[in-house]
Task: inverse folding
């Protein structure tokens, strides 16, 4: 069944995916919950014992918490950019991907934002950020940006769900618990598909999409300025805003491909997530690779060419195999070289290879975030001559690793649960055709 | 306007000083070096005898000591206001530093720091391959354009009118952004519970930074509580070489406890500079270049435990070409 030809009873096909889950599903939820609970245990230990049990010290005051924060927020902004662009440009083929992109946005936002809080030494004073907030601080910018973004993205995710909730509410003999039926009835907001409701909902989609695109770009630029506003080598760079936005879009696109592949396999969605989706996104991915490579090159070449004292110290660490050369090498291989070879050249392209490359890109870009945060902190202007040598180099402890894995598990868990509540393919959207007679922008006709 | 204020404040201060019998040479304005901290009267009398500038002995009401020199440091709110009319500055004479590390000890003792926490650090520096290494004590530079204060999301660290940059440990949320922002690696984080003190929590003052709190940031505060009393910081008092000078730019005087010098003249005569002036942070700590040294830098190595001396190898043997290969 091709969604573009026969879509009248599409919901019938997706009802089993929201009805009673298999034991396998419960097993997944169980395993992921264990990871999340262990992360919570680690966090409680950290609050009890203080940050001495993390790997962070006076020089590397931030570690993988900050890297995770940047990484997950990047995924989130990318998801928002992708779904809103598809929506706003009326791209019909993109419709089956909308919900995956929106879930990616919200889940990574929910996972990413707390990571910056784990860096706080005094979680008990977190309300000071609001009661005593100073607008001069990039952290306050971030607080405002992230809260705004979270509200917008959750609203957008919900708006795009309303019509599907209505369909589930109206579906006869839906085999789910009564509370879920009640929930669908409540969340569908009495949507009956009248022309006026349709029009308003469509307008709401458009407005949210148009707001979220600039919000995402601004928010991620603000996040990059957490680093860019510091005087440190490797951070104090005018390119950081756009560089971060490009990196974010790149990582999100890569993860989109991985998630698409997984759902296609698990839910047998070959009729909806088509080969051409992989084709188009892989094309987008390799373009992002080139952009990313270009930005990385211009970032490093300007630091390297004149080689001021501190930049020299920092860059030498990326060439020293006892320091960060291995990580830098792996990062360039995974995030730039492999995608160009596998997707850019015609011989290795396939849906599976594109997916593997995408997974590698995601890993490569996480390493990049680590390489932004830690080496710079380990390269202050005044040479480190700390008395304690074990304080000089950063390496994450079990607490930080536990919370990192808990974050990944929570993100998967959100996907696992969300795709049980509503179909992972936005049924109503796919059934609908964009009205070609209505342009995106209405021009004032000028005489002729 | 500002000048006028500071002048009247100084006049008030001078009159006060007279009342408690401290004889000051007219116009010298030198109140540093602990001169006015020695109150001559310990009696419980209502009246005290003092000597006027004309040489007469008169009897006046015994002043309230705590009004002239506060007996207790101000609380977090008042400590956000600087001491009016003051502009504290610090001068380090690099030619005199021999890494005796007494300043660090004095500072740790005075601020009740854990043995491994150093607000004040002494680095071994070498400016170019031909240069000779020298010891470089680094306290907080109390910048006029402080990168740390700019980035604080809750205003826990702030700049005062008397040049000091202080931290309110009971407002700090421990985000560590200020540590990342400081180009001089001045700030330290209280990773563990700080050592016990007999100072109750209610008596906390950002000027003393005691008792500190776990999960917050702390740093050198130029001993603001001692400055308020008119005495020198712990580090200056403990330096056996007299390499450290503390003073007030408005009074144009800095002192290392034994000699008091004209601040502006000193910086002019000795080519005083500020560390990494190019960063635009406008520090208030000045360094006098390590010329005509009193000690070889190797003398200082003796004060570092043998097994830790290898951390200086990079500096001593550096030829600045290692990274261009």
Result:
């Amino acid at each position: 069944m091709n969604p573009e030809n026969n879509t009248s009873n599409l919901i019938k096909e997706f009802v089993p995916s929201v009805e009673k889950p298999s034991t396998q599903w419960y097993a997944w939820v169980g395993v992921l919950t264990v990871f999340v609970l262990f992360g919570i245990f680690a966090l409680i230990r950290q609050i009890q014992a203080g940050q001495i049990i993390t790997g962070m010290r006076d020089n590397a005051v931030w570690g993988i918490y900050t890297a995770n924060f940047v990484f997950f927020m990047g995924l989130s902004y990318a998801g928002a950019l992708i779904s809103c662009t598809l929506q706003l440009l009326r791209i019909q083929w993109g419709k089956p991907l909308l919900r995956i992109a929106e879930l990616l946005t919200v889940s990574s936002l929910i996972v990413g934002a707390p990571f910056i809080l784990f860096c706080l030494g005094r979680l008990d004073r977190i309300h000071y950020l609001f009661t005593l907030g100073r607008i001069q601080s990039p952290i306050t910018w971030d607080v405002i940006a992230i809260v705004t973004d979270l509200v917008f993205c959750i609203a957008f995710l919900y708006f795009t769900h309303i019509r599907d909730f209505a369909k589930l509410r109206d579906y006869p003999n839906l085999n789910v618990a009564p509370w879920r039926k009640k929930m669908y009835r409540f969340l569908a907001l009495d949507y009956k598909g009248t022309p006026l409701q349709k029009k308003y909902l469509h307008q709401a989609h458009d407005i949210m999409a148009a707001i979220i695109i600039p919000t995402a770009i601004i928010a991620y630029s603000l996040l990059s300025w957490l680093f860019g506003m510091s005087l440190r080598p490797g951070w104090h760079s005018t390119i950081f805003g756009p560089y971060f936005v490009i990196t974010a879009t790149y990582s999100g696109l890569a993860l989109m491909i991985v998630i698409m592949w997984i759902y296609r396999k698990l839910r047998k969605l070959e009729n909806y997530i088509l080969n051409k989706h992989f084709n188009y996104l892989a094309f987008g991915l390799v373009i992002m690779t080139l952009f990313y490579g270009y930005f990385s090159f211009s970032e490093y070449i300007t630091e390297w060419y004149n080689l001021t004292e501190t930049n020299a110290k920092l860059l030498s660490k990326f060439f020293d195999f006892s320091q960060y050369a291995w990580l830098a090498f792996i990062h360039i291989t995974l995030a730039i070289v492999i995608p160009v070879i596998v997707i850019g050249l015609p011989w290795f392209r396939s849906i599976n290879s594109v997916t593997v490359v995408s997974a590698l890109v995601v890993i490569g870009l996480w390493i990049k975030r680590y390489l932004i945060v830690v080496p710079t902190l380990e390269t202050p202007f005044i040479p480190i001559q700390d008395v304690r040598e074990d304080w000089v180099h950063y390496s994450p402890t079990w607490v930080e690793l536990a919370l990192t894995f808990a974050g990944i598990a929570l993100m998967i868990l959100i996907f696992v649960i969300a795709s049980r509540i509503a179909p992972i393919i936005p049924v109503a959207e796919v059934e609908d055709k964009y009205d070609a007679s209505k342009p995106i922008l209405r021009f004032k006709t000028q005489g002729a | 306007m500002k000048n006028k204020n500071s002048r009247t404040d100084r006049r008030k201060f001078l009159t006060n000083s007279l009342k408690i019998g401290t004889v000051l040479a007219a116009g010298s304005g030198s109140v540093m070096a602990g001169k006015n901290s020695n109150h001559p009267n310990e009696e419980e009398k209502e009246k005290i005898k003092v000597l006027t500038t004309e040489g007469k002995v008169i009897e006046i009401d015994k002043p309230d000591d705590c009004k002239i020199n506060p007996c207790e440091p101000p609380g977090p709110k008042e400590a956000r206001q600087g001491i009016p009319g003051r502009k504290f500055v610090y001068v380090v004479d690099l030619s005199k530093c021999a890494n005796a590390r007494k300043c660090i000890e004095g500072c740790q003792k005075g601020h009740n720091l854990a043995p491994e926490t150093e607000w004040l650090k002494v680095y071994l520096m070498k400016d170019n391959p031909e240069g000779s290494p020298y010891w470089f004590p680094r306290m907080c530079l109390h910048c006029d354009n402080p990168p740390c204060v700019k980035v604080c999301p809750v205003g826990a660290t702030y700049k005062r009118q008397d040049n000091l940059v202080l931290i309110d440990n009971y407002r700090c949320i421990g985000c560590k952004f200020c540590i990342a922002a400081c180009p001089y690696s001045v700030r330290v984080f209280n990773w563990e519970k700080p050592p016990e003190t007999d100072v109750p929590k209610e008596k906390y003052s950002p000027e003393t930074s005691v008792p500190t709190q776990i999960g917050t940031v702390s740093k050198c505060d130029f001993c603001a509580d001692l400055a308020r009393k008119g005495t020198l910081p712990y580090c200056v008092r403990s330096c056996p070489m007299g390499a450290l000078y503390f003073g007030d730019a408005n009074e144009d005087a800095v002192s290392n406890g034994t000699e008091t010098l004209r601040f502006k003249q000193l910086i002019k005569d000795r080519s005083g500079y500020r560390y990494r002036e190019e960063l635009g942070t406008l520090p208030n700590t000045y360094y006098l270049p390590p010329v005509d040294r009193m000690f070889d830098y190797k003398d200082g190595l003796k004060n570092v435990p043998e097994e830790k001396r290898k951390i200086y190898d990079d500096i001593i043997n550096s030829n600045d070409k290692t990274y261009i290969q």
Q: What stands out?
A: Chain B touches chain A through 49 residues (CB under 8 Å). The first strand of chain B starts at residue 47 and ends at 51. The two ends of chain B are 58 Å apart (CA to CA). Chain B has ten helices and 13 strands.
